[in-house]
């Protein structure tokens, strides 16, 4: 028996499906039993049931869902929907509007021919595959392509015997082994292109880029495939080959001919005559090539290229391709093999020009591989991973072939539930597919990191179809990617380039291939390790895209336009504020008037509305924002700004006249990584502000956030200079430069004030401390610490406490011994005007202070050395001939080109103390203000509170001592080591930080609570449970009205924190269920918290879906992601779909407190 369920009205029925002989009869009976019409379809799991067998094998519920019928714009007489597609802003924008208005499947008419257009990967997967439901069939309006390609692979139907024969015979010619054999000739052709570009690079002659990309790809397919040179790369001014001219004309006419009735195409008109003559010329040229090859005596080796293979290959029956079919294949390869690749290269170079951060990354990659055309046989193209990602992202944004057309062979229902009648053209819109925001967040942004393996694996392979896929996919895909990688890597390696008027480049709307509007490019010779030429030398003072994105140049303050600039920041730990101040200084250097404020203090936030500055310019003011995020929420000094955004978005207010850019700081371990910066960016863009350059982001997970910031801020500088017509005078400094020449550090009298300066008043006393692990077994320590609550401070369960740690006295003494400083000497820092990081000691303290107080309470000596330290040390060491080489090495590592060396350096010098131990003998070369400028100030550490204030004036924390062992040396976390070594009676400085209702128990005590934590992520739940117990909340089984479950994850039995306490909570009814997940158990299967959710899916599904439970997660960000994915899997299992999880989030029933 099969259970059929109608989720629309909740009805269900069981029917013996195996007793039926006809699918339609079963469908009629099911619908009748459910008392619904027959316009329904069956769905089992994620699959549509379209035959009897697919229903009979069902072992779970089969859903009965209403069929959807595609809608579309009203048609006009004769033309159908052609005006809706072609008029107005153009096909791309029109199609996006149509999909937004009518859904993922739309109905359109070309004249009287009905079509379905799809934009969702789940539907594209079904349409793209050759199956009993869909096939490729060349019919109107695409039948016009037959006149070009004849029976070639691209222009023949799957049912055509010629297609089957050619496909079978040609597959080996594009095997990995065959592709490898083509590499040498592609390098030779690229060398010819370089010779031409070298000529142009001598004086920056502007040249049409697409013309030369067309020549190189055309010559490549001609020589590699057919041993025929079109001589278009012989000289810089080589004439275009007649074949190329004829083909270009025909391709340009395709769309016009698609829209032209047949009787008009048959008339003796000049355009028809030229088209037909061009076709005849192409066929004649290829026929001559084939005849010449056949007339040559057979050599010892056959099949040395594609043409030889076509002439000699035969199938298992001995059938060969006739000459006419070979000619059609040659023309097809010449068209498809050059035009798509040439346009991809053109778009890729333009995108790199517009995104200098990515241009620099590609430059670094090819430089790192020592890319050279002098030794092409030593070049490993497979290592061009960033180049490949750039090309994939280019193909996503600008797919050469924008429509993949199939024919529906019989009535079917797509996975999205839309009905497609038999004999209907069904078209996958590559543009809509590739710009689907549910698949590609912020699809308008160029982001090659979408193609990192871990990111690409998250998407359906049918979400990216520039080459189609399956049996009808592009046979030459690997050849095209090989050629594009070699050419792009060569151009980036050997040239800087400049595209005047690059912002005006748009896709042509009159071309069957997605071409860019024609533009010129200027090439300038590039040498590895040599700074790029000055802008004036590049003869284009209005553009800076060819400058290294890590260089910030001096700008003439008398040339160009200036508008007011406001730099806003949202900062928890000071990093974003520091970055904001650096941005502000750069704009001040360019002559702009600049204000720097927290996001909450922006004038429109305080006023409650935005009043635009007078004028009609696109950018009447600039707003630059640098912000962090915490669990997806704004920092404290951005909370009012967040409310302002919500208010303005609801009112659909206008921010026209603002130019803006956003940089986000975060950690991708968090599920909500970059959530708040993304919200800010979308807010400004959606309300009409102009985004001056793409949103930047720094990811603490991968380290070296400063480098990410420098790339972004340099690109911001580049675009500002370009947009406001500023004149660059020189390129003298990098963004990491610090200046503090007029800073003054005075020696003062040692006093009690100086001895205690920066040491926060100790306001809490240790009442008790207990070890919750067995360190001798687990090699780890976790302390449960109970403190007195400072006077005047209050908290609720879910809040945090900030701890101000003190440095281990041993480390303080070691540092003093290395540097030779007197710990009891006192100093005072005077105000100074030059710039230095706001996170540095020089900017953060004034004094008077003793060195002992400074090193104990303020200097962050256990963090890794920064590039600023290397820069400051290096500058000082270079002044002495004895140490100048070491100084030069440090300066090189501190710069953008030293990233790899710096990464290796950190492996041997884990902390600042390590660095000084190795190079402390040189510390005397530094002035006191030098190392005050490069060492950062300690930030307070934040921990979840593990108690309820209802217990009394106490506050608890659960802290695991952080220890890393590297090269047999132990490194302790500053705050955790400090806290875990406190004894009863010791005093400490703390401050309660409210979670602002983002992590609170439900107001309704009967709302079920699911708590999920790992390790010390248990802490807030200890506070929750203690609070519930003190409120006498009991489980239903114990006579109460609450339901509470805790899922706790740890390594093994020895890591199980407060296990006895949890058992008591279960026994007294405070807790319904305590579910333990051991990832490294002494016996049995390993489990993570997400496995518990799946194992007990019935319980947790019922609590969340039917009883509106609230879910709380505390622990590492990766765990939070796993929890999310597990709940999505549960919802999908119970037929609600993954998307139901977002409903839970929107209803504020999923709260997380996670860290990286």
Can you tell me about this structure?
The chain has 1156 residues and is an alpha/beta fold. Helices cover 39% and strands 17% of the residues. The strands form eleven sheets. Strands 17, 18, 19, 20, 21 and 22 form a six-stranded parallel β-sheet that branches. Helix 22 (639-650) links the parallel strand 19 and strand 20 (657-666). Helix 8 (176-201) runs antiparallel to helix 9. It is globular. The two termini are 50 Å apart. Residues 759-1002 form the FAD-binding FR-type domain. Heme binds at residue 474. One of its GO terms (cellular component) is cytosol.
Backbone structural class: alpha/beta
Q: In what range is the share of β-strand residues?
A: 15-25%
Helix content: 25-40%
Tell me about the biggest sheet?
Answer: 6 strands, parallel
GO cellular component, one term: cytosol
Protein name: NADPH--hemoprotein reductase
Family: Belongs to the cytochrome P450 family.
Keywords: FAD, Flavoprotein, FMN, Heme, Iron, Metal-binding, Monooxygenase, NADP, Oxidoreductase, Transport
Notable features of this structure?
single chain, 1156 residues, alpha/beta, 6-stranded parallel sheet, 5-stranded mixed sheet, 41 helices, 40 strands, 17% strand, monooxygenase, FAD, aromatase activity, heme binding, iron ion binding
Give the structure's gist in a few sentences.
Helix content is 39%, strand content 17%. With 1156 residues, it is of the alpha/beta class.
What are the SSEs and their pairings?
Layout: E1 2-6, E2 11-15, H1 23-33, E3 40-44, E4 47-49, H2 52-56, E5 62-66, H3 82-86, H4 91-102, E6 105-110, E7 113-118, H5 121-128, E8 134-135, H6 146-149, H7 161-170, H8 176-201, E9 207-208, H9 209-226, H10 242-258, H11 262-265, H12 270-295, H13 306-312, H14 323-354, H15 356-368, H16 385-397, E10 403-408, E11 412-413, E12 419-420, E13 425-429, H17 430-434, H18 453-456, H19 477-494, E14 495-498, E15 520-525, E16 551-555, E17 565-570, H20 575-589, E18 594-598, H21 603-607, E19 619-628, H22 639-650, E20 657-666, H23 675-686, E21 690-691, E22 696-699, H24 705-723, E23 728-734, E24 745-748, H25 752-756, E25 764-771, H26 775-778, E26 782-788, E27 800-803, H27 809-819, E28 826-829, H28 841-844, E29 849-850, H29 851-857, H30 867-877, H31 884-894, H32 899-908, H33 912-919, H34 928-934, E30 941-944, E31 954-960, E32 963-966, E33 969-972, H35 974-980, E34 987-988, E35 990-993, E36 1009-1014, H36 1019-1030, E37 1044-1050, H37 1059-1068, E38 1073-1078, H38 1089-1095, H39 1097-1106, E39 1110-1116, H40 1117-1133, H41 1140-1146, ...
Helix pairs in contact: 8-9, 8-19, 9-14, 10-12, 12-14, 14-16, 14-19, 15-16, 15-19, 30-31, 30-34, 38-40
